[in-house]
Specification:
The complex is a heterodimer of chains A (436) and B (183).
Chain A: H1 8-20, E1 25-26, E2 39-40, E3 53-57, E4 69-75, E5 78-85, H2 93-97, H3 102-109, H4 117-132, H5 138-166, H6 170-191, E6 200-201, E7 204-205, H7 213-236, H8 239-245, H9 253-258, H10 264-268, H11 275-278, H12 299-323, H13 341-346, H14 348-359, E8 367-375, E9 378-386, E10 394-398, H15 400-404, H16 407-411, H17 417-427, H18 431-435
Antiparallel strand pairs in A: 1-2, 3-4, 4-5, 6-7, 8-9, 9-10
Helix pairs in contact in A: 3-4, 4-5, 5-6, 5-12, 5-17, 6-7, 7-12, 12-17
Chain B: H1 2-11, H2 19-27, E1 32-36, E2 39-44, H3 49-59, E3 64-72, E4 90-98, E5 103-111, E6 117-119, H4 129-139, E7 142-144
Parallel strand pairs in B: 2-5, 6-7
Antiparallel strand pairs in B: 1-2, 3-4, 4-5
The chains are: A mainly alpha (436), B alpha/beta (183).
């Protein structure tokens, strides 16, 4: 480019063209001396036939939610093509699962979608229980539903925070984290950990709900509801927010279905599909809640759906508090659940069971099963193949983010670069689950 | 239908196939329908893999291919036999979901290690694009007709397919305190 800058004919051509387009040309006060030339401060000196450029957004870009690389072909500010490049967080968890017993497997899967850990644990536990043909006690079922809904609240609250941050609504970031922290505090009080809980285990949950969980839950519910009311006041009618999200990144129902998209993105297109209603698992057929869905399939609808799903989760959690049945929180099958600690001191058999369970694990009959549930991001499924040993032959997690991320290539073309940030944010991908 | 009810019926009391599975078995000779833990499963011939998915989409109103993956059965201790199916080392597994009928069905195709390839479903269900790349990357099964069959999770220059059972695990030896150092 520097060589051709001195070609007077070409230069005149360029300057002429740029002046026509209203480009800024800085002219010196004194006439140009021989050997000097005017300084042009536009980026428009691209050859005609190569007017597009390919840039990589990420893998370190803060708005790519972790380590996603987005290859984008740009024409000026307009995105022509977008291609998500993944694998930067691939840790071989599915391979790892083949080396872990079914007892240990929960610790592995919980780290996949690290914002809704409980959903991962639940889908894994349900799949193994399906292979074992276990029937769980009522309290375990309800406690699982309660925990998963708490986790959905936490996940969607964090979405509100990151979505706001990506769009420049930085106060939203603080508010979203604030309410999520309260939910995580409750989860910590119950499970002992904020994240990666490994609390939902094959055969039930790891421990009974602690004393005072009802009061604590109701406090958190009230806090979350007041938080959501704040977000509504801040964003719903906010003209900047609406400009940034309304009509941006639209996708039709047919496209979404063809691309394997599930969860809030599918529902935003006006398709009220929620596995909790359509194919109820746990006790979702016994609680009252609504499925939120949109009409336009744009970023605003996806934001709204996730906002109101928080309130629906609060509804379910309140019903769990009211109607939590008494009884065992895990199945009393010594082949699957470890004996209580106190029994180990007095019973030889309990000691043997405990030892066998944590060294060898339990055997699962040969077979294969696919169990889907609705996580905060869509359908998360677990496909397990067992050969009758304590370790699975294959453990595959159908991560909703993995499939949802493909919608980026469908939604981004034709939008501006800044909009592509909004679109990516509204997909809400968790790279731990995408790469596994 | 015929080959389903002969031997399988002996072992289980009575296998009642879902209408979709029965239709698939009737339409594609050589395929075997079964029920696995209450889920409809149809073992289809590898040659009719794509035709079966097209049949599901166009005639049985299956709207989504929710998941596509594959299994390496090299080291299985026990593999429950399915009458009428000759097992190969690999299995490609696709889960389909029909939203209007609220129904699921699973297709399984046997893929031999000698020729690990199967037709791509990307033209029927574009959403399996990532999934097929993942299976290609991790298990080395090729999908004919896939527009961009490249590695997706592993680095582009990676050798081997990590989820194959005969692929060595990448382990980094743990160094303990007091061990002789590298120098």
């Amino acid at each position: 480019m520097s060589t051709s800058m001195h070609d007077p004919e070409l230069e005149a051509q360029r300057l002429g063209r740029q002046t026509d387009e209203g480009a800024q040309v800085l002219r010196r006060d004194t006439p140009a001396q021989p050997g000097t030339h005017e300084v042009v401060v536009t980026g428009g000196i691209w050859p005609e036939d190569d007017g597009t450029m390919i840039i990589n957004m990420g893998p370190q870009h803060p708005s790519t939610h972790g380590v996603l690389r987005m290859m984008m072909e740009l024409d000026g500010e307009t995105v022509l093509r977008a291609k998500p490049v993944i694998g930067y967080l691939h840790t071989g968890m599915e391979k790892q699962a083949e080396h872990l017993t079914y007892v240990q497997g929960g610790t592995n899967v919980t780290r996949m979608d690290y914002l809704s850990c409980m959903s991962n644990e639940l889908v894994f536990a349900l799949a193994v229980e399906n292979l074992l043909d276990l029937e769980l006690p009522e309290r375990a079922v309800w406690a699982r539903m309660y925990l998963v809904e708490l986790q959905r609240m936490a996940s969607h609250l964090l979405f509100q925070a990151t979505n706001g941050m990506d769009m420049g609504a930085l106060s939203m970031m603080i508010y979203g984290w604030r309410e999520r922290e309260e939910v995580l505090r409750l989860i910590e009080a119950i499970t002992g950990l904020r994240m990666n809980n490994n609390f939902i285990r094959v055969g039930g949950i790891a421990a009974d709900l602690p004393d005072g969980w009802r009061e604590h839950t109701l406090e958190v519910c009230a806090l979350v509801e007041s938080g959501v009311a704040q977000y509504e006041a801040l964003l719903l009618e906010n003209p900047i927010w609406q400009e940034r999200t309304m009509g941006i990144g639209t996708i039709t129902t047919d496209d979404a279905l063809a691309l394997g998209i599930t969860g809030p993105i599918l529902r935003s297109t006006g398709f009220p599909w929620d596995l909790r209603k359509a194919q109820p698992y746990l006790a979702y057929d016994q609680v009252q809640f609504d499925v939120c869905y949109g009409r336009n399939g744009d970023c605003y609808d996806r934001f709204l759906i996730r906002l109101y799903e928080i309130l629906e989760s609060v509804k379910i959690v309140r019903q769990c508090v009211e109607r939590m049945p008494d009884g065992d929180y895990r199945i009393q099958d010594r082949k699957v659940t470890p004996p209580p600690r106190a029994r180990i001191d007095e019973s030889m058999e309990a000691l043997i069971h405990h030892f066998k369970l944590f060294t060898e694990g339990f055997k699962v009959p040969a077979g294969e099963t696919y169990v889907p549930i609705e996580s905060a991001r869509g359908e998360i499924g677990c496909y397990i193949v067992s050969d009758g040993t304590p370790k699975p032959v294959r453990m595959h997690i159908r991560g909703p983010s993995f499939y949802n991320l493909q919608s980026m290539a469908a939604m981004a073309p034709g939008t501006f670069v800044a909009d592509s940030i909004a679109i990516l944010s509204s997909i809400d991908p968790i790279l731990g689950e995408v790469d596994r | 239908m015929a080959d389903v009810e002969t031997e399988v019926a002996d072992t289980a009391d009575e296998i009642v196939l879902e209408p979709v599975a029965a239709a698939l078995v009737a339409r594609f000779p050589g395929s075997v329908g079964m029920v696995s833990h209450g889920q409809s499963v149809v073992h289809v011939d590898r040659a009719s893999w794509r035709a079966a998915s097209l049949f599901l989409r166009d005639e049985e109103r299956f709207t989504q291919c929710v998941d596509l993956t594959a299994v390496d059965h090299l080291t299985d201790v026990e593999r429950p036999p399915v009458a009428g199916v000759t097992f190969e080392r690999f299995e490609v597994v696709a889960n389909f979901l029909s939203h209007p009928r609220n129904l699921r069905v699973r297709l399984i195709a046997q893929v031999p290690v000698a020729a690990p390839r199967v037709e791509s479903l990307t033209s029927e269900f574009p959403g399996v694009g990532f999934a097929e790349r993942e299976v290609f990357d991790l298990l080395g099964i090729e999908f004919e007709g896939h527009p961009d069959l490249t590695r997706i999770l592993m680095p582009d220059d990676w050798v081997g397919h990590p989820l194959r059972k005969d692929d060595a695990d990448a382990r980094i030896p743990v160094t303990f305190k007091g061990d002789p150092g590298p120098r």
